[in-house]
Specification:
Elements lengths: L2 H11 L4 H14 L5 E4 L4 H10 L11 E4 H8 L9 H9 L6 H22 L6 H10 L4 H10 L1 H20 L5 E2 H9 L10 H13 L8 H10 L2 E2 L6 E5 L2 E3 L7 H8 L4 E4 L8 E3 L4 E5 L2 H11 L7 E4 L6 H12 L3 E5 L4 H13 L5 E3 L4 H6 L9 H5 L7 H13 L9 H12 L1
C-alpha cells in the first residue's frame, strides 16, 4: 500500500474529516494548488479536535467557527509518517476521481465536445445532412444552443438525438421528398410518432436543419413552419386546423374547378376547410372579388344563415380566433386572385392583434378592417370584466392607424366588446355590397 493510500485510509475511517475534505476538494478545484483558506462556520467539537491534532504548528480550534489555510493542511501531510504524498493525490484517492481545476475541467469538456462533433461530422461526411452539421457546429448557429443544452444534459442521449435528425434529413433526400406525415416519419425513425413534434427539442432541431437547406432565417410563425415542412414533403396534422368558408370557389393548377369543394358554394352551404383540402388548390375566388372574414363562428353562422336563401356574390370566412395556417393560405390565394378581404374581429387586444397582423402582412388595401372603428366600439355594449395590464400592453403594438385609435380607446376604457353584437349591422353591410 502506498503512502497516499495509507493516509487516505486514515482520513476515510475518521468521519471527523468528512466535511473538511469536501472543503479542500472545492478549494483545490478553484485554484489548482494550496491557496486560500477553509472556513467552517458551524464546526463541531469533534471537527475542532481532529484539526487540533493534525495541523502544524499546533493550533487551538474552537467551535463553532474554524478557519485554516490549505497550505497549512498540506504542510501537515508532510509531517505525517507518509510525507511522500501531496494534497492533490490524497484528494483524488479519497474521492476515487481525477481532481480538475475549473479551468482544466472547462478545457476537458471543450475537448470532449469537439471530439463528439468531429465524430458526428465524420460519421455523416458523405450524407446529405453533413452540410448542416458543419454549418451548425462551425457558426454556433442554426440550432446549436439547443444541441448544446441536450449535450450537457446527457451526451449519450444527444448522440442518439443527432443520429435521428440526420436520418430524417437523409431519408427526405433519399425519397425525393415524397409526401409523408410528420408522425409517420417520427415513427419510422424512432418508433415514437411524437418524437419530432415541434414542442420537443428534436422537433425544433429538425426544423433548424430544414431551414438551413431552404435558406430561411427563422420559423417564428405557424405559416413559416408549415412552409418549411411542405418544402421537405412533410405533412403535419392536416385536419386539426380548419377555416369555415361560404361562397368561395376553388380551382387547381390547370384551372379545373374542384367540384368536391365547389358543391358547397353552389348549394350555399358552409364548408369546413382543412389544410389537406388546400393541397392541390392554386386559385380561390369569390364572385365579386370581395370576401368578408370574421373571427367568431356565431357571427359566421348568423351571416351564412341570413344569406343562405338570398342572392349573394361575395365570400364569407370564419377563422375561429387565431388564424391557422390553412386560413392564412386561403386568404393569401384570394388576394393573389385580386380579392379584397374585409376582416372583423373582437374588440379585445387579441382581436385587434389578429386584424393588425393581416393588414400589415398583405399588400396595402387588400385587407380592410371591418366594423372595428372607434364608432363601432362605442356603439355596442361592453364586457364588464376589466382587462389586465399584460393584455392591455398588447394594444401598444398595433401598427395600423385606424386600429390604433380603437386600441387606445380600449386601453383607456379597459374593457372589451364582442362582434356578435354587430352581426346584424354586418349583414346589412354585405347586403348593400350585393345590391
Amino acid at each position: 500500500m502506498t503512502d497516499t493510500e495509507q493516509l487516505v485510509k486514515i482520513f476515510q475511517s475518521d468521519k471527523r474529516f468528512s466535511r473538511i475534505m469536501d472543503k479542500l476538494r472545492g478549494k483545490y478545484q478553484s485554484y489548482g494548488e494550496h491557496k486560500g483558506n477553509i472556513t467552517l462556520k458551524d464546526a463541531t467539537v469533534d471537527e475542532c479536535e481532529a484539526l487540533n491534532c493534525f495541523i502544524l504548528p499546533k493550533k487551538y480550534f474552537k467551535a463553532p467557527v474554524i478557519t485554516f489555510s490549505v497550505k497549512a493542511f498540506e504542510e501537515a501531510i508532510h509531517h505525517t509518517p507518509y510525507p511522500h504524498t501531496t494534497l492533490k493525490s490524497v484528494l483524488e484517492s479519497y474521492y476515487h476521481e481525477k481532481i480538475y481545476t475549473s479551468s482544466e475541467k472547462n478545457s476537458l469538456e471543450q475537448k470532449q465536445l469537439q471530439e463528439f462533433i468531429d465524430r458526428m461530422k465524420e460519421k455523416y461526411s458523405t450524407d446529405c445532412c453533413a452540410e448542416w452539421l458543419c454549418y451548425m457546429s462551425d457558426t454556433k448557429k442554426n440550432g446549436y444552443p439547443i444541441f448544446i443544452h441536450e449535450y450537457k444534459a446527457d451526451n449519450r442521449n444527444a448522440e442518439i438525438l443527432m443520429d435521428n435528425i440526420c436520418q430524417a434529413i437523409n431519408s427526405r433526400y433519399a425519397n425525393d421528398f415524397e409526401p409523408i406525415q410528420l408522425a409517420v416519419l417520427s415513427a419510422e425513425i424512432t418508433g415514437n410518432s411524437h418524437y419530432f413534434d415541434f414542442e420537443n427539442s428534436q422537433g425544433k432541431l429538425l426544423l433548424y436543419a430544414i431551414a438551413f437547406y431552404r435558406e430561411k432565417a427563422d420559423f417564428r410563425t405557424v405559416e413559416d413552419r408549415l412552409w418549411l415542412y411542405d418544402s421537405f414533403g412533410i405533412e403535419t396534422n392536416s385536419i386539426s386546423g380548419t377555416v369555415a368558408v361560404f361562397g368561395i370557389w376553388f380551382f387547381d393548377d390547370t384551372g379545373k374547378e374542384q367540384t368536391y369543394l365547389n358543391g358547397f358554394a353552389k348549394a350555399k352551404e358552409p364548408l369546413l376547410l382543412c389544410d389537406r383540402n388546400m393541397k392541390n388548390i392554386v386559385r380561390c375566388q369569390s364572385e365579386n372579388h370581395i370576401v368578408y372574414a370574421v373571427e367568431n363562428p356565431s357571427v359566421f353562422s348568423i351571416l351564412t344563415d341570413y344569406f343562405s336563401e338570398k342572392a349573394i356574390h361575395c365570400g364569407i370566412i370564419c377563422t375561429f380566433g387565431q388564424i391557422k395556417a390553412v386560413g392564412m393560405k386561403l386568404i393569401g390565394k384570394l388576394i393573389e386572385n385580386d380579392c379584397t378581404v374585409y376582416y372583423a374581429g373582437d374588440f379585445d387586444p387579441e382581436g385587434l392583434q389578429i386584424a393588425d397582423k393581416l393588414i400589415t402582412k398583405f399588400p396595402k388595401g387588400k385587407i380592410i378592417a371591418w366594423r372595428m372603428a372607434v364608432t363601432d366600439y362605442i356603439s355596442i355594449k361592453k364586457n364588464t370584466d376589466i382587462l389586465n395590464t399584460r393584455r392591455l400592453s398588447l394594444l401598444d403594438k398595433i401598427i395600423d392607424e385606424r386600429l390604433y385609435e380603437t386600441a387606445m380607446l380600449i386601453k383607456e376604457e379597459k374593457v372589451s366588446a364582442y362582434q356578435e353584437l354587430l352581426a346584424e349591422t354586418m349583414a346589412e353591410d354585405i347586403r348593400k355590397h350585393n345590391s
